[in-house]
Design brief:
Distance between the termini: 75 Å
Strand order of the largest sheet: 1-2-3
Strand content: under 5%
Helix content: 55-70%
Structural class: mainly alpha
Number of helices: 12
Order of helices and strands: EEEHHHHHHHHHHHH
Number of strands: 3
Largest sheet: 3 strands, antiparallel
Length: 267
């Protein structure tokens, strides 16, 4: 996202080419926007508007949370909402904040960084599953971050601090964990049991005819690779990632062997 910093405002171009006031968007997320001192008391709040948009998105998808549909929930026009929320981009950012309101307290998971990070991932996946549109709303882009979203990041990084890792390492591990969580959330979103059964049957028939061309796939299939599994996918992937982190920590804990005794040469 290209940004231009002026003397008083930071702006970013939107899809329609209209400049967006990033500082105003940040103030809205953090509840620091200027409040009108004159005129009638506002009948709505950004928080109420975001809650209505979340309900629409949960029921019908992110596209359903348009300014017009949200306005209709309150019996007002889309234009009336612009008094509180500048546009759809800001609305989506408020929606993300709304569903991340329950910032996790990981102390109950124990003192170990591993248990705390696994608890963080479980809670994160629960949020993605409850609000499937969150995947699209938090796609890989430099979006404005509110206090709740930042609180989730802070909790994950705090869990890793006792491991003695550097800041960049903690961030990279966080990216691996959230990537695994988002991948599972995407799988759940794409799941279609009827399609999966048809795909498995057709793929099996194809491999039966061409087993000699794809021997490794055929052997894996014969060994049950694509059969329904009782393995907890979240735990399986996390354990592989965190085993690697354990190995990284362990490598650093190995002391360097002192040099051996110096033998004096015989005369």
């Amino acid at each position: 996202m290209a940004a231009r910093t002026g003397s008083t405002r930071t702006r970013s171009a939107t899809k329609g080419g209209k400049a967006r006031d990033l500082r105003a968007g940040a103030a809205l997320l953090w509840g620091e926007q200027d409040q009108p001192t004159r005129g009638p008391k506002p009948s709505l709040t950004p928080r109420r508007i975001a809650a209505a948009a979340v309900a629409l998105a949960d029921a019908e998808g992110l596209e359903a949370a348009s300014m017009s549909k949200v306005g209709a929930e309150f019996g007002v026009s889309a234009m009336a909402l612009y008094r509180y929320v500048p546009g759809k981009t800001e609305l989506v950012e408020l929606m993300v904040e709304a569903v991340l309101e329950d910032v996790p307290d990981l102390t109950a998971a124990g003192d170990g960084w591993r248990d705390q990070l696994k608890e963080w991932a479980r809670r994160s996946l629960d949020v993605y599953r409850a609000h499937p549109w969150l995947l699209a709303a938090t796609a890989m882009r430099r979006q404005l971050v509110g206090p709740n979203q930042l609180g989730w990041l802070d909790a994950a990084l705090a869990a890793l601090e006792p491991a003695g890792l550097t800041g960049p390492e903690r961030h990279q591990i966080f990216l691996l964990v959230i990537g695994h969580v988002r991948n599972l959330a995407q799988q759940a979103l794409d799941a279609d049991e009827d399609h999966d059964r048809e795909w498995a049957a057709l793929t099996g028939e194809i491999l039966d005819r061409h087993a000699d061309r794809y021997p490794a796939v055929s052997r894996a299939l014969a060994d049950g690779a694509f059969a329904p599994s009782t393995v907890d996918q979240l735990d399986f992937g996390l354990d592989r990632v965190l085993d690697g982190v354990d190995a990284l920590i362990g490598d650093r804990a190995v002391p360097t062997a002192p040099p051996g005794p110096v033998r004096q040469a015989r005369a």
